[in-house]
């Protein structure tokens, strides 16, 4: 059985969005979009991994795969909820209008139909793709019911009155939409409303709506909001909203802000951890496969972020690293080049204006009151990708940084998660230059 430590990585070939993230029967379950044949996007399945602590992951193979006429071309993203001890997995089912004759894993002219479906697992271990599936929402038949192609990614939760709510991402006339449904039993659903706004991009993907300390938050991945000619025009944002769970009426209460200012993270999904804290994991987009995995897995592409708490602080949503992660970093770094040991490294310190830190070729500095980064030296010279990033103005000339470094990912938590900036990297060297207070490594 394949295991991962800290970051869940593709078990070989391709992964993208986290799906069905849930704490269920004493274990964390994280499903993910998976193409099991090549390290590139193709016909989507749901891979499955479990964990006792959010940092030690055990891959459990493929949970969901195409098996019905309505999902024959893909099991797209969705969510999970526990109902009477069973695990209900909701997903978007894809049927191509016509397959590409040269590559059946792609729709000809990118035309397809999307409906919403459900698989019921009695225990989170067995997934009957033949007899336990049902289509719960058909392909939208009219524009007011949703776009027939781009309506997807059901997030389902139990409402305060014990019934169920579903929110879907969609589009209409080039404007991102939210579609709401309600259900008494999680099986039969009725329309409860819709909402559109340019802040939701051209199409909204992977909506996640939750109440945190009495205030509602909308996480989502609006498409096209950084369409500047570089890769990844679609980003993940959060917004405070006013939401009535009974009527499903929603209004935006502020401008969208990035979940992660590195702009590599996408499609985050949240759940409650074992103590009831809201925790988030997102997909880290990778521009090329990793060909030389030391654990012998096939070339792989795509990984998940570290788990992050979701907390309100002074009216701002913050994303500090989960304490289960920090508890792993107990080993003081030995020698002068801890990055060269290929172990996860944690760097803590205060970066001040005028200083530049060098982490394996990845550079950080303060400029104009913002944290700035440059990964030009550690992205293999790949063209078309963002090499530099910066946070919003911090209103200060120094910031406390908590940095977690692995072979392919640098995650930077500013001022306890006030902002997060994460980047996929390739080819980190052993350089470590900076005024760090502590340098520790993790042992699996």
Describe this structure in words.
- The chain is mostly beta strands and 444 residues long.
- The protein has one helix spanning 323-326, and strands spanning 3-5, 13-24, 27-35, 45-51, 56-64, 75-83, 86-96, 99-100, 103-107, 112-121, 133-137, 152-158, 164-172, 175-183, 190-196, 204-212, 215-222, 237-244, 249-252, 257-258, 265-272, 278-284, 300-301, 303-304, 308-309, 311-313, 316-318, 331-332, 345-352, 356-359, 362-367, 370-374, 388-390, 398-406, 409-414, 419-424, 432-433, 436-441.
- A six-stranded mixed beta sheet has the order 1-5-4-3-2-23, with no helix packed on it.
- A hairpin with a 2-residue loop joins strand 6 and strand 7 (86-96).
- The two termini are 16 Å apart.
Name the descriptors:
444 residues, 1 helix, 1% helix, six-stranded antiparallel β-sheet, mainly beta, six-stranded mixed β-sheet
Proportion of residues in β-strands: over 45%
Q: Can you count the helices?
A: 1
> How can the largest sheet be summarized?
6 strands, mixed
User: What ranges have pLDDT less than 50 throughout 5 or more consecutive residues?
Assistant: none
Helix % is under 10%
Overall shape: globular
Question: Short description, anyone?
Answer:
With 444 residues, this protein is mainly β. The chain is built from 1 helix and 38 strands. It starts with a strand and ends with a strand.
Per-chain topology:
Elements: E1 3-5, E2 13-24, E3 27-35, E4 45-51, E5 56-64, E6 75-83, E7 86-96, E8 99-100, E9 103-107, E10 112-121, E11 133-137, E12 152-158, E13 164-172, E14 175-183, E15 190-196, E16 204-212, E17 215-222, E18 237-244, E19 249-252, E20 257-258, E21 265-272, E22 278-284, E23 300-301, E24 303-304, E25 308-309, E26 311-313, E27 316-318, H1 323-326, E28 331-332, E29 345-352, E30 356-359, E31 362-367, E32 370-374, E33 388-390, E34 398-406, E35 409-414, E36 419-424, E37 432-433, E38 436-441
Parallel strand pairs: 2-23
Antiparallel strand pairs: 1-5, 2-3, 3-4, 4-5, 6-7, 7-10, 8-9, 10-11, 12-13, 13-14, 14-15, 16-17, 17-18, 18-19, 18-20, 21-22, 22-24, 22-25, 26-27, 28-38, 29-34, 29-38, 30-31, 30-37, 31-32, 32-33, 34-35, 35-36
